[in-house]
Amino acid sequence: MSQEQLAERIAAYPSWFYNFNLNGIETSPDTVESNRRHELRKEFFLDPLIQASAFAGKRVLDIGCCSGFWSFHALEAGAEYVLGVDAWPQAIEQAQLVADVKNISADRCEFRLEDIFTLLSQQELSDSFDIVLCLGFLYHIKRPIELLEHIYRVSRDLLILDTTVYDNDDAVISLRPDAGKQSYVESARDRLAFVPSEKALHWMMKEVGFQCRTIQHAFSSDDKGVADYINGERMVFACSKLTDVSSIYSDLKDKPDDAPATLLEFLEEYHQNKHNEAQEMRRLKEAQQLVREREARELELDVALKEAQQLVREREARELELDVALKEAQQYVRDREKDISVLNAQREKDISVLNAQVEGLKYLIDRIEKHWLLGFMSKIFIGSRD
Ligand SMILES: C[S@@+](CC[C@H](N)C(=O)[O-])C[C@H]1O[C@@H](n2cnc3c(N)ncnc32)[C@H](O)[C@@H]1O
User: Fold this and answer.
1) pLDDT digits 0-9 by tens, 151-160
2) pTM for this one?
3) What is the CATH number of domain 3-259?
């Protein structure tokens, strides 16, 4: 695509959520404060992950990826594969355009236009992602716990959740309208959104099974575009199944853990059972995988054995052919030897016949010579008397 065509494609959209630099052309250079906001958000919760090499070789799910800002950063930080999902056609088109310009192949990065609940209902996605990014998303939907349960099922380890929170010390959820989704794919058009308080979120994470810590921001009051983080209306949570998130984020707030003891005990037992069940499932899957591998190996060996048997059969047939050829050759040699000895005997015979004939001829010549000499002498003798 030429620079002019690229500039036309970029300008064809009424807006860009992020300011990408595509071959020297900026997609949204005028939205200065919002551009700065995304940079500050990145410094706040993505850079520590990048610095800890958390993305290296990992599979990442970017929920509500919009035009892919976070997906591209995860890829640049070494992610093996990123799946970005969004229900807004324009956002997915833009993300794909950026991926095309950056020459990123589809086996490393895919963007799907889909309602996240439709995608996450696919059972085969279980245990598929090492890191799930759920940024600026939770406050757009009315089924937050269902979403977190889905995320827990598809994730192997980390979830970074960036969301508006209801500024309240209790574990409460605020109900809000979330309009303006006319162009979204059909099932993603929730008109109501549930916005949990920080404590409610911690309880929800606990209920689902994630270890959850609130990450403290280090913004100063001069930072533009991040007022909601500064005044406590927006927070970021580092949640994990395995990794100790304190190895990634230095400033974590202790969880607001004053859930009733009965709830905590119940959850403790519930998660222990769930954990055991998950381990059993994992072991079962590993065993099934082993069986599949062994079956595949046996199949390979079977094929190799059949090939070897075929080779042996072919070699035996070849040896048989060679044996026949050898015998024929030996017979031929014997026949030729016989011919030669017959010929030799015949030649000896011929030679002795010839020799006898030569002797006969010699004798004859001798007799003729003698006879002729006698005649000649007598002629001379008789002549001299006349
Ligand atoms: C505020 S933007 C956040 C974009 C990005 N994650 C970020 O933090 O910069 C929310 C995105 O979620 C998408 N979205 C909202 N509801 C969705 C749903 N049910 N399924 C998939 N995407 C959805 C919107 O289209 C939008 O791009």
Assistant:
1) 999 999 999 9
2) 0.74
3) 3.40.50.150
